[in-house]
């Protein structure tokens, strides 16, 4: 079975699945739709916060598929079963625990379809989010697993160095 | 060209900063490009007084990886 930290949320029409192990804290979800995805709240996903179409649109933008969605009519019986289970137990996603104040919204600087330099975004009080074409060489001089997007720790306290694991919120890292 | 046109290179320094070179741009949280030419060194220890850049503080705050 899946990771016990995984969660699912529904509005009766669609179900959003949250797979924390895939999250790189790119913060796309809550920058786009804080009404639904609010890491400062429990539960952190409020399916009543926006229309279904808007929710699915933002979920589709998650760069790592840490959140995905399905029509409820497409759910497997297993998924339906765990949905009933979840409604009884208040969830507590581990990696997202503290308040987010005003989420910043960096502008997309250029047309994203053409070949362009790697985009390295400094997130306020958060990680360095890198997108585009890039290579990462680790502290041991070996190339790390290639990805299209990743986020590096800036607070100094991540337990999965050099990557962000969300600890900056726990330690109250500020710029 | 010093390296592949379309690639940025990010190098993690042990107990130190992240070196960025190649083809990239660093965008701050206001959405502004603050630097697009390398190499630049981004703070990883959380202690720099010149964030997001490294100012050498990792040496004095005992930043371990």
Structure description:
- The complex is a heterodimer of chains A (175) and B (65).
- Chain A is α+β, with helices and mostly antiparallel strands.
- Chain A has helices at 28-32, 52-59, 77-88, 167-171, and strands at 7-10, 14-18, 67-71, 118-122, 128-131, 134-137, 149-152.
- Chain A has four helices and seven strands; from the N terminus they run ββααβαββββα.
- In chain A, the strands form two sheets. A three-stranded antiparallel β-sheet of chain A has the order 1-2-3. A three-stranded antiparallel β-sheet of chain A has the order 4-5-7, with no helix packed on it.
- With 65 residues, chain B is mainly beta.
- Helix content of chain B is 0%, strand content 31%.
- Chain B has no helices and five strands.
- In chain B, strand 1 (8-12) and strand 2 form a beta hairpin.
- At the A-B interface, strand 4 and strand 6 of A face strand 1, strand 2 and strand 3 of B.
- Strand 6 (134-137) of chain A pairs parallel with strand 1 (8-12) of chain B, so a sheet runs across the interface.
Please sum up the structure shown.
The complex is a heterodimer of chains A (175) and B (65). Helix content of chain A is 17%, strand content 18%.
Give structural attributes.
heterodimer, A: 175 residues, alpha+beta, Alpha-Beta Plaits, Ribosomal Protein L9, domain 1, 2 domains, 7 strands, 17% helix, globular, B: 65 residues, mainly beta, three-stranded antiparallel β-sheet, two-stranded antiparallel sheet
Largest sheet of chain A: 3 strands, antiparallel
- The termini of chain B sit apart by 33 Å
- Helical amount of chain B: under 10%
What is the number of strand segments of chain A? 7
Radius of gyration of chain B: 13 Å
| Domain module tally of chain A | 2
**Class based on secondary structure composition and strand pairing of chain B:** mainly beta
Q: Which parts of chain A are unreliable, with pLDDT below 50 for 5 consecutive residues or more?
A: 87-114
The arrangement of helices and strands of chain A along the chain is EEHHEHEEEEH
Major interchain interface with per-chain residue totals: A-B, 37 and 37 residues
**For the record, what CATH class of the largest domain in chain A applies?**
Alpha Beta
Can you tell me the CATH topology of the largest domain in chain A? Alpha-Beta Plaits
The radius of gyration of chain A is 17 Å
Order of helices and strands of chain B: EEEEE
The termini of chain A sit apart by 40 Å
Proportion of helical residues of chain A: 10-25%
Number of helices of chain B: 0
Main sheet overview of chain B: 3 strands, antiparallel
